[in-house]
Write a structure and sequence with these properties.
252 residues, alpha/beta, six-stranded mixed β-sheet, four-stranded antiparallel β-sheet, 10 strands, globular, AAA+_ATPase, ATP-binding, ATP hydrolysis activity, nucleotide-binding, ATP-binding cassette domain-containing protein
Amino acid sequence: MNPLLKVEHLSYAYHSAGGETCALSDLSFQVEKGEFIAIVGPSGCGKSTLLSLISGLLLPEKGDILLDGKPVSQSRAAVGYMLQKDHLLEWRTIYQNAVLGLEIQHRLTEKNLLRVEQMLEDYGLATFKNARPSQLSGGMRQRAALIRTLAPNPALLLLDEPFSALDYLTRISVCDDIYKILKKQKKTAVMVTHDLSEAISVADRIIILSSRPAAIRKILPVRLSLEERTPLLSRSAPEFKEYFNLIWKELK
């Protein structure tokens, strides 16, 4: 089976009047369908730049990014991008925010709208569909943002520090909820995070990047001896501390 995402010898630099700043250097990896990949690395190493390239917002200077076997710009497979902040529009209701992507893409079909209604029900937001974003807690807003991202049914989901704006307890709870949602829908996801514990708790594999210009130091498969894996339960796995120490040493 071909990987959903294939990154081959990817390099990228920012150019300004002051010169060139190399952000990424010769990155190669692939993501299989249904996988949850976490990317960690030092602050400023180029993790968000990598997501922007995968999403097609930036174009590679060198190398290739293939989505379902074709360059991102030519692939029919959709990419969903969930940012650090929820960016919900206050003048729209939660339901209107949830269908915003469909509205922009002119895909407000009965089937898609029913799917959004079902997600609102499944994820505990049905009774808040007519509320404004300011009336919701941070965790509920993130669930609404996820529904908006999933509404167009993307093949690949990119998550850029999606829980960083939440307090610690809410962060763990929402991470647990979103992990279950993505696994239930069998979504393929790539998540950037500074939180090593978060990466270990959700990822099938962790890509560890070096300082800028980012190169891949190690790709680490995560195998935890749990009958049922969730982010919350993963933190109590006997191997958890070992993975944390290993990643910490690589980053140092």
